[in-house]
Amino acid sequence: METAIKTSTIKDKLIFEFETSKLFLFGDTQIRDQAMESFYKQGIPTRNHEEYKYTPISSILKGEFDLSTSKNCNDEQIEPLKFLKEAYNVIIENGIFVEGLSNLENLPKGVTICSLVNAATSNSAVFEKHYAQYADIKTDPFIALNTAMTKDGVFIHIAKNVVIEKPIHIIHIATAFENTIIHPRNLIVVDENAQVKIVESYQTVDSKAKTFSNALTEIVVDNHAIVDHYKIQDENACLPERKELGYLMNTTQVIQKKQSVFSTHTFTLSGALVRNNLTIVLDDEHIESHLNGLYITSGNQVVDNHTVVDHRKPNCNSNELYKGIIDGKSTATFNGKIFVRKDAQKTNAFQSNKNILLSEDGTINTKPQLEIYADDVKCSHGTSTGKLDQEKIFYLQARGIGLTNAKKLLMHAFASEVVNTVKIEALRDYIEGKIAKTFE
């Protein structure tokens, strides 16, 4: 929808666009109204907001941004982005589900993949039960903004006892000829005893201007279900000469039920600014949660990872490992919180953040946190930051390996602990190839 807007701030523009377009958007208008009211109260966060202290969102959004979206990509442009040959491919361009470019033939019985617009009517029972029920619009302005403004996205429902062998690959594409804000949305519901692998990739394609993607994914993992979730954030892969164009605000909200297993892996390889908000709620007993992350930064990049693991019930386990390699004048942040509620006895929760600084100008801000209200738990957290080990470099050089190759070997070894957690072989090979190219 093209709209001529002459208001003064991006906040004004967003509110104006919402009021003129909300009647044409899918879903419950009341939910959208509440979300926009929450966004209005919170506003665009500045560096004075503790949670956004190291994320210069307000300065980025000071410029002129268009709020309309259009579909421009074709098969030739999208084909290289389908790096998993054995997968069900879902194409999301500028937040809009593109069925014609997706590859969803021969879906197993009990698997539904469609646009959120269609799901609101054709799968209304599941949609209404779960949509906008977990990501709290009052806790973050970008959750509120996405809930109010999203135009479309993908709905995935895996029925009870269904096991999918092939992964589902959601390919998020941002493309623009003018600076544009988009709001992609995913709702993934995995029923009891079901198993699935979900891969999300984010890239900017054929853009002449900045794109700010405010993406939100809600994942429901029911009793005894197993979900492997992967995020590949490589905004500048298709535009290596224009590193300032891709901005990504990525929020993932997960709710787990009894004896479920959820593993998520986040690989941030490029992007002018990438902010990840990941919240996992362990809302029953005997749950397992695994969080792994790797971020490799250079130039003037800003990468910010905020994680929350909320243990609400007893006898649950969570493990978290994030690693970063920081070069140039880039800035990386890790802020990890673990909550152990009063009733969550017998909790095992572990968190680790490790970083390597390759330059004098790079910056890492790390803040692991524990809040424990139960007395029978095993919890730990730790962080370390340093340079490449000179003794190890000397050891490798003494055995005939050049300085540059010695550094590459050490960085690869450092990253491999996270890469090796990837269970899809083709995806692991793809990530290793990307990392090797980055180290060049």
Automatic annotation (TrEMBL):
One of its GO terms (biological process) is iron-sulfur cluster assembly. InterPro entries: Fe-S_cluster_assembly_SufBD (IPR055346), SUF_FeS_clus_asmbl_SufBD_core (IPR000825), SUF_FeS_clus_asmbl_SufBD_sf (IPR037284), SUF_FeS_clus_asmbl_SufD (IPR011542), SufBD_N (IPR045595). Transmembrane segments: none annotated. Residues 175-414 form the SUF system FeS cluster assembly SufBD core domain. Residues 30-170 form the SUF system FeS cluster assembly SufBD N-terminal domain. It holds the Pfam family SufBD_N. Belongs to the iron-sulfur cluster assembly SufBD family. This is Iron-regulated ABC transporter permease protein SufD. It comes from Flavobacterium xanthum.
